[in-house]
Amino acid sequence: MTPQQFIDKWQHNTLTERAGAQPHFLDLCELLGVDKPSDPDNYCFERGAKKTGAGRGWADVWKRNCFAWEYKAPGVKLEPALKQLMMYALALDNPPLLVVSDRLVIQIHTHFTGRPSEVHTILIADIAAPANLQKLKWLFNDPEQFKPQPASQLRVTAVLQSIRLWAQRLKRDAVALWFARKHPDTPLIVKALCWFVVAYALSPIDVIPDFIPVLGYLDDVLLLPGLIWLTLRLLPAHVIDAGRQAADVWLAQHGQGPRSYWGAVLIVLVWAAILATGIWLWRH
Question: Which residue has the higher pLDDT, 242 or 155?
Answer without folding.
Answer: 242
